[in-house]
Structure formats: structure tokens, C-alpha cells
Amino acid sequence: MKISVAQGSIQDSKDDTIIVNLFEGVTVPAGATGAVDQALGGAISELIANGDLTGKSGTVSVFYPREKLAAKRVLVVGLGKSEAFNLENVRKAAATGIKQARELNAVNVATIVHGAGIAGLPVDEAAQATIEGSVLGLYQYQAEKIKPNSKHKIESLTIVEFDPAKLSLIESGVRVGESIADGVTLARDLVNMPPNVATPTKMAKVAEKIANEHQMKITVGDRSWAAERNMGAFLAVAKGAGEPPKFIVLEHNANRDDLDTIVLVGKGITFDTGGISIKPSQNMGLMKSDMGGAAAVLGAMKVVGLLNIPLRVIGITPCTENMPDANAYRPADVIRASNGKTIEIISTDAEGRMVLADGLVYAASYSPRAVIDLATLTGACVVALGKGMAAGLFNTDDALRDKLVAAGKTTHERVWPLPLWDDYLKAIESDVADVKNSGGRMGGVATSAIFLKQFTDYAWAHIDIAGVAFSDKKQGYIHRGGTGFGVRLLIEFLRNW
């Protein structure tokens, strides 16, 4: 879909479909909606007066101008209550409108920036959110089918703004929004791919494409590369894998020592059977999403390149399957990680923290100002915070925590701080190694985090995205399947560093 910005009046647009909006409780439409209402001879006001147009969030009313406008149809999207309106409402309204336009077989769509008028949101941020909601609302995964996805495709979306003074801000917001949507789309696609497609090798090829397009340095480490660096924890998980593991490192502004260095680490278990501690067969197929952290990091690195963010950003994604075979690591094994610490294996299904351990140790080689890891790590986090609600956040630096919480609030990719007390170390004490890789069911989300802390010596945040990386329902700009959670959060964090 081609996206552009044009100066003018929305009612004069020659696109076949135009989208305006209305707050709940408004009786006399103003601004762009008022101008369209006037051109339609008061048709919008009439429906408001009759109670047929309420402005409630999630609603869309369709008007047919009958040659009063060049457009074939006008969509009025409900914004909900004005007092609670924010950027997330913009995304939802944009998604609602554009999806209705697609259902009506629109080809060329024009819209105003939702929230930049009477709502008073910053124009560039509202434009960014309008594009994010629109593009992500139209997301379709191209499944492996004989017949391609049959949903109608919109060819163009034009943001129309009357005030010439706002155009540069809108254009800036559109560019950011489109770039971020590209990164989220990549992350969603990777999670939605079948595990025999989204292998570690595929993840490496995606990273290579990002590196080539955005002049990033890339390293793709194989088993021997990891062995040379004593990555025993990563290699232990990979021992039973039929697919060759890939330890992937992308470096943006690789040689810019004058810039602050931020390292992003993503868990890349491309399929998780649980290994010898095998999972129940029911719903095991969902474990193709266990590389949601790596997908988010690769998506974020794509956006970092598109926006040329003025930081030195390193993306690390240790990728492997976790499979049971004769070579697989076992409960009671003792494994040595790359920082020398030994790990007693309690459960081979606690594999994500193993690959992250060596990823976090490797991150230290960049002398980072901050390291953030994302992982679909524990079911306990889903129990604690609920499905689709928020990611769990653990941190060793309060300033880093505050920045991530703020970024989560802006993007609605919310993170909720959880305790990282040393008391949790008791649960992972081992008689035969420095630590156990599992502390059992009680407090599992915290004991996994305290385990990871043993492999850090810098400002660090761990984000458990187990409950938010995959959705089983459609809502707004979220679709069934991979959500791409983490891309927008990380980019908002980096842009405000």
C-alpha cells in the first residue's frame, strides 16, 4: 500500500473512500468532519440527532455522497470518549476505519490524522499512530496455500491535512509510523511462519538481508564458532537439534564508539518441544512462537536501520530448536556457560534462559550502557499478569526501568515491574553447580529472572513476553497469531534514549 501526505480539504479528495471521525457525545461535528457534514447537506448531523451515530469506539458509519463529493463513500469512525483519548485510541480508530474500507472494496483511501484536532495530541505522534494502526490493521500473513489470500487489497492511503504548517510534522510522523509498521510486520511474519520454515537458518537469512539493506555488520555463529567462545549453555540446548543453530549478531553504527551502545537480546527458540522434559502434545504447535523475542529484536533492528537511529545498537539472537534425541542435554547434566558459571539442569524445558545466558555474557563485550532482553520465557508470567495484558519487567537499573515503562505506556506495549530480590536465589541453589536452571513452579517468573541476572554485570532489563507475543483473537490492529510485541516498545525506548 502506497502511503502519502497531501495538503487540502478532505471533502475535496478524489479518492474513492474518505475517513473522518467523531467523539462520543458530540452533537455538532466540527473540523474536517464538520466540513464533510456540510458538504453532505447535514447527513452526519442528522444521524447523530437520530441516535444512529454515537461516536463510540469501534464503530463505523458509512455515508454515500451521491455526487455531493468526488468520493464514493465516507466513513465516520468513532473515537470514544474525549477525556480518555490517547495514542492507543488513535491506532484502534485508524485500524477500525481502514478495515471497514477494505471490506467495502476501497482502492484509494484518504484519511485525516486522528487525534490531532480537538483531541490536542502532538501532530507528528498522532500521524505516526494513524499509520501504525492503519498498516497493522490491514496485516495479513501470506499462508502456505494453493489459493493465495483472497482479501481485497487497498492500493493507497493518503493523509490529508488542511493546515500547510502541519505538513512537515505529519510527514515526519508518517515516515516513522511506516518504518515501525514494517518492523512489526517482519516480527509477526517470523512468528507466524511454520517452524520448518522459520528455522535458525531462516532467521540468519533475514538478519543478513537487514544487514545488507542498512549497512550493518553481521555475525552468524555456528556450533564451532560458539564452541570457540565457550558458549556451553547455548550449545547444550542445540545438542539435540536437527537444524543447525545460529548465534546471530547485528551491529548498527558498529564503529561509532562515540555513541551510546544499547544491546538488544532476543530468545530464538524456533521450536520448543521441551527437549527430554517434553511438553504435552496438546497445543505444542504454538511453540513455533518461542522465538518471539528474537523476532522482535530482528524487527526492531530493521526499524533502527530504516530510521538510522543515532545510537550504536547491537541485536543478538541466539537461535536453535529444543528437541529430544540421543544427543540432547538431560536433567542432571551440569553445563558451563561462557562466563565460567556452571548450571545444573533441572528441566530441559527451561531452555530459553540457557541460550539467553550466553547471549547476555556476549553482550558485555560491547561495553553497553544498557542491555535489554526479550523472551517468551515463562508460563508463570502469563499467570501473574494475564494473557495479552502486559509483559513482565525485571531490572537492575531504575532509570532503565522508568524509560521502558514510559515507552510501554506510549506504545501500549505495556511492561509491569516485578521484583528481582536476591531472596529468589535460594530457589536455584545447587549442590553440584553454581546455579540450577529452574527453581520450580512457585515464583517461576522471578526465579528465571534471577537466574539470568547471574550472567550480567551492566544496566540490564529482562522482559518476559510470554503472554503478549501471540494472540488467539483479533482486536483492533492485533491479529490472531504473532503480535510483533516488543518492536514498537524498543523503538520508542531507543528514540527517547
Written account of the structure:
Helix 3 (87-103) packs across helix 4. This protein folds into two domains: 2-161, Leucine Aminopeptidase, subunit E, domain 1; 181-495, Aminopeptidase (3-Layer(aba) Sandwich). A hairpin with a 5-residue loop joins strand 12 and strand 13 (342-344). It has 497 residues and is an alpha/beta fold. The protein has helices at 31-39, 43-49, 87-103, 123-137, 167-192, 200-214, 223-228, 232-238, 292-307, 352-363, 379-385, 398-411, 444-453, 487-495, and strands at 2-7, 17-23, 60-63, 73-80, 108-111, 156-161, 217-221, 246-252, 261-266, 268-272, 312-322, 334-336, 342-344, 370-375, 391-395, 415-417, 435-436, 460-464, 470-471, 481-482. The strands form four sheets. Strands 7, 8, 9, 10, 11, 14, 15, 16 and 18 form a nine-stranded mixed beta sheet that branches. It has a six-stranded mixed beta sheet with strand order 1-6-5-2-4-3, with helices on both faces. Helices cover 34% and strands 20% of the residues.
